[in-house]
Amino acid sequence: MQELVLVQLGRRVEDEPEHQATQADTRREFEERLAECGPLAYRVARGVLRNTADAEDVAQEALLCAYRKFDRLRDRNRFRAWLVRITFRLALDRLRSGKRRELRDTLWSQPEHQPRAATAEDLAASSEFQAHLDNALAELPEKLRLVLLLAAMEGHPIDEIASMLGISTGTVKSRIFYARRQLAEKLRCHANIIKKR
């Protein structure tokens, strides 16, 4: 019965020291890579969330996720870009769930029978535009959204973004251009809808 358990786990007793040595090497390599670009996870999360506490939580979650999946990363030289993508996705998930929760809390806290203030239209238009902006950003392809986040929101120079993502500076420039153009078109459509009201 004991041998069956060991076979089900996928390794034998005599393989255990070798497995531990491999695990130690992997952990050491992860720690080296993390020392190089660990703060980047926080900066990316902060750029998306604009909240220190949430950014710290997401950065820790991203580092934990990266640690758990590090042995599956084929090209270890792309660790920086991989960590950015993990953090970006987790931050977007947190942002979306936070916005849904905030909207739900706002709706529940306002009694329906209270009259609206005179500036309610301005507030509604502002929050409607913010929601449209968030949706427009979410609709951008991931590769465009990522470079736009790193360039416009995080303030990274183009050559640094190219290095982080492992692509050429020309590719970064074109992605930023297309991301801005698509975002402007989506926002222009929204502005036209508001004018027609």
Describe the structure.
This protein has 197 residues and is mainly α. It folds into 2 domains: 87 residues, RNA polymerase sigma factor, region 2, helix turn helix motif (Rna Polymerase Sigma Factor, Chain: A, Orthogonal Bundle); 74 residues, Winged helix-like DNA-binding domain superfamily/Winged helix DNA-binding domain (Arc Repressor Mutant, subunit A, Orthogonal Bundle). Helix 2 packs across helix 4, helix 3 packs across helix 4 and helix 7 crosses helix 8. The N terminus is likely disordered.
Indicate the percent of residues in helices: over 70%
What is the CATH superfamily of the largest domain? RNA polymerase sigma factor, region 2, helix turn helix motif
Ends: how far apart?
74 Å
Q: What is the name of the CATH class of the largest domain?
A: Mainly Alpha
What share of residues are in beta strands?
Answer: under 5%
At CATH level 2, the architecture of the largest domain is Orthogonal Bundle
| CATH fold label of the largest domain | Rna Polymerase Sigma Factor, Chain: A
Structural class: mainly alpha
Q: Given the C-alpha coordinates, what overall shape results?
A: globular
Task: Flag low-confidence runs.
Answer: 1-14
Helices, by number, come to: 8
How many β-strand runs?
A: 0
